[in-house]
């Protein structure tokens, strides 16, 4: 077993699409998807851009304001997630700062209460 401390991952700053105070640290990748740890400093923004593939933002700490193609802003906290479809324009802001994981690529994301993977039977 290995233990990963997401704060210790090498992070690189991202400024594309008007992003501010945003950094990512990759810690998982396969041919069909990648997994990154993201952090937004207080007042940080991930600028509006299209999702490359289906994208899942899983909040670990802090609070985020997220919007999809329709532009409606929703608040997320730790233990919540947002899903954007391939090509969907979206953005994320965090007035107080946040840490999250993003999985993007060829993935299935179920609706609340829906079992996506039945596990070992």
Describe the structure.
InterPro entries: Cupin_2, RmlC-like_jellyroll, RmlC_Cupin_sf. It holds the Pfam family Cupin_2. Residues 38-102 form the Cupin type-2 domain. The chain starts with 11 loop residues before the first strand and ends in a 16-residue tail after the last strand. The chain has a single domain, classed as Sandwich (Jelly Rolls). The protein has strands spanning 12-14, 20-29, 33-50, 54-67, 73-77, 81-84, 89-94, 98-105. It is an all-beta fold. 0% of the residues lie in helices and 56% in strands. The protein contains no helices and 8 strands. Strands 1, 2, 3, 4, 5, 6, 7 and 8 form an 8-stranded antiparallel β-sheet that branches. A hairpin with a 3-residue loop joins strand 2 and strand 3 (33-50).
The CATH first-level class comes to Mainly Beta
- The gyration radius over C-alpha positions equals 14 Å
The CATH architecture can be named as: Sandwich
Determine the N-to-C terminus distance. Answer: 24 Å
Into which percentage range does the β-strand content fall?
A: over 45%
Order of helices and strands: EEEEEEEE
Portion of residues within helices: under 10%
> Which stretches are poorly predicted, pLDDT < 50 over at least 5 residues?
none
Based on Cα principal axes, name the global outline: globular
Q: Kindly state the mean pLDDT as a whole number? A: 84
By CATH, the superfamily comes out as Jelly Rolls
Kindly summarize this structure in a few lines:
Residues 38-102 form the Cupin type-2 domain. It is built from no helices and 8 strands. The chain is an all-beta fold and 121 residues long.
